[in-house]
Amino acid sequence: MKFCWTTIQVSNMEKSLAFYTEVLGLKIVRKMSPNPDMEIAFLAEGETQVELMFNRKNQDIHFGKDISMGFIVDSIDGFMDAMKDKGIDLLEGPFQPNPFIKFIYIQDPDGMKIQLVENIEPAS
User: Fold this and answer.
1) Which residues form the VOC domain (predicted)?
2) How far is CA 43 from CA 3, 56, 57, 69, in A?
3) What domains are there in the chain, each with its CATH number?
4) Burial class (CB in 10 A: 0-12, 13-18, 19+), 78
5) Cα–Cα distance between 50 and 73 in angstroms, integer?
6) Engineering a disulfide at 68: which of 11, 32, 105, 113 sits with its beta carbon 3.0 to 4.6 angstroms away?
């Protein structure tokens, strides 16, 4: 079995696309509109994709507080500087539970918790 994507319902496709492409650096793989009330976009950087689904008839979006999506970044400190420039608030962190990993949490425009992880190579 191979994991292929996570679907996220969004309340504003343009804001969500801007967040996932401009902030997280994902690329739009494909977009479609199966009917006049629905827009779907698949985004990826690598193999696993994020599917954003906008439905004009479903604007009641809620995410549980105990779920998050994780993305690897080159530098947590560099990412936090870039977030400040874009006006994105830090939700939690930074945390460094051991010398080899550092992470923070932010939220997407609809409140989905996003974990950003820096894997730190051991000194040789």
Assistant:
1) 2-119
2) 14, 20, 23, 14
3) 1-56 (3.10.180.10), 65-124 (3.10.180.10)
4) exposed
5) 16
6) 113
